[in-house]
Amino acid sequence: MHPFRLGKRGSTDVGTKSSHTESTVADLLTKEAKANSDFSLSVVTTNIAVESETELRQFIAKKLGKGTVFSGTGNVAKLNFIITEATETPLDCYFCLLRQLPDDLEQLVGDADVFNGDDEKDSYYSQEYVVCFISKANGGLDLFRPDLDRYCEGLLPLLDSHRLYDVIQEDLMKLKEVSKRVTDYLARWHDDALQYICRCVARIGQSLQYLIYVALSDTQMQIQGADENFASDLKKFQECCSLSELMAASSSDTKSSQSDLESLSADMSKILSSNPIPDVILEVRENKCTFNKTDCTKFCSEFAQSLLNCEQSAVLLRQRVESYKLKVIQDMNSLKRLIQQAENDHYALYRAYIFLNENGNGAILLQHAKLEYQTDNTQDACKVLLVLEEYINETGGLNVVAVSVT
Predict the structure, then answer these.
(1) Which helix (H) or strand (E) holds 369?
(2) Which pLDDT does position 249 carry in this prediction?
(3) Could you tell me which of 367, 336, 368, 375 has the C-alpha nearest to residue 252?
(4) CA–CA distance, 268 with 382 (Å, rounded to integer)
(5) I need a surface site. Which of 81, 119, 308, 318 has the fewest CB within 10 A?
(6) Distance between CA 129 and CA 147 in Å, rounded?
(7) What pLDDT sits at residue 206?
(8) DSSP conformational letter for 248
(9) Distance separating alpha carbons of residues 143 and 316, to the nearest angstrom
(10) Beta-strand relationship, 124-136 and 221-224
(11) If you average pLDDT over residues 361-370, what whole number do you get?
């Protein structure tokens, strides 16, 4: 059993109609801190014993009362009390505050049920919930925090479509229906938010290197023939291995970066838009995964083999993934330093070429460098990249090879 809990915090005054659109960040933080100082917690659904639930409620109340828990972003903390007889302490507890704001404030103006005070149009209330997931204290919840945040966001449509606050007062049958759907969703948290990495590694097998190459190069992938669950697993794995969040510049708005290119010369524009990576198609048929493109780097092959040789534990696999992503970031920083030096040093330009050629992951590093300097609009760095790519093309390209799996 993987313990979970969904608690409901008493309706909270989160602002006035005007402050919803005009308030500053400081005002919103002040409102949040005030809300955290006066609230009550009640249980919506849980699969832990009453005694443990009471301790957990007190634990969460203390965290909320400090005013450092903000909606939409999960936190992980240690629990030093027993949840079930089968568990040992300490435990990791992931908790996330979810807030439901009114869908349309204009439609709610004048509705006495959602406003408070002498002037009923002065303030409105939100529904707030605290989601808790509990696991062994092995660091797994912290590693999978982005996945758990997204999983908690997936709970909001269930709560939005059947507002529990209204349902409780109006229709007991609907309350039972909604509660069951919410409970079933929460019961799958460990399988959906963590175990996908095990399923992908086991099912894709030796072709995993291609999926890793797709993820690291931020290539778009089309999935054909897979059922909804496996397609979801593949997308999660791709996001898990992607560098887009770590390299903020790579995920910048492409429209703004394209407008920046207007100030560059034709040669600069050429290097920044050259060699676009085409979409990859993954076809799933009879439990066999086939990629239409089998480009790969030595680094991606080693990355995949490391996962295949690893014990099939979600935590251990994620640790391997993060360690390889860290290696890419370190190599990227080394390349950026060489590019910066090469703006004034021809020998550094040659060292940058040697680094890319011998790195084992040069094609992906060069692709990310092009995207980053495209955003920064740094002409000197773009000139270096232009010279580098021209020389690389003249000498036969980097070590991106099409490999076959037997």
Answers:
(1) helix 362-376
(2) 41
(3) 375
(4) 6
(5) 119
(6) 18
(7) 92
(8) G
(9) 10
(10) unpaired
(11) 90
